Amino acid sequence: MSTNTTAAAATGTREWRSRFPTVNYLNADYGIWSWLLTKDHKRIGLLYLISVSFFFAIGGAYAGAIRLELLTPMGDLMQSSTYNKVFTHHGIMMVFFFLIPAIPGVLGNFLIPLMIGAKDMAFPKINLLSWYIFMAGGLITFCALLFGGVDTGWTFYVPYSSNFSNTYVTLAGLGIFINGFSSILTGLNFIVTTHTMRAPGMTWFRLPLFVWSHYATALIMILGTPVIAITILLLALERLSHVGIFDPALGGDPVLFQHMFWFYSHPAVYIMILPSMAVISEVVATHTRKPIFGYSFVAFSSLAIAVFGFLVWGHHLFVSSQSVYAGMIFSMISFVVAIPSAVKVFNWTATMYKGSISYDTPMLYAFAFIGLFLIGGMTGLFLAALGFDIHVHDTYFVVAHFHYVMVGGTVMGYLGGLHNWWPKITGRMYPEGWARFAALVVFVGFNLTFFPQFLLGYMGMPRRYHAYPVGEPMWQVLHVMSTGGATVLGIGLLIPAVYFIWSMRYGRFAPANPWPGTGLEWRTPSPPPTENFLVTPVVTWEAYEYRPIEELQTIGPGEPDQPIDGQHPANRGTETEER
Amino acid sequence: MQSIPIPNISLPVPFSPEQASTFAPHVDALYVYLVTLTAFFTLLISAAIIFFAVKYRRRQAAELPRPIAGSMVLELTWTIIPLMIAMTIFVWGASIFFKAYRAPQQAMEVYVVGKQWMWKFQHQTGQREINELHVPVGARVKLTMTTEDVIHSFYVPAFRIKQDVVPGRYLQTWFEATKTGKFYLFCAEYCGTNHSGMGGYIYVMDQAAYQQWLAGGTGTESAASQGQKLFQQRGCASCHQVEAGGQQGLGPTLYGIFGKQQQIEGDGAVTVDEGYIRESILNPQAKIAAGFQNIMPTFQGQVSEEQVLQLVAYIRSLAPAGQQQGGAAAGAQTTSGPTTGGVPPQQQRSNPLHPSDVRQGNPAPQAPPAGGGNTGNANRQQ
Question: What is the ipTM metric for this complex?
Answer without folding.
Answer: 0.89
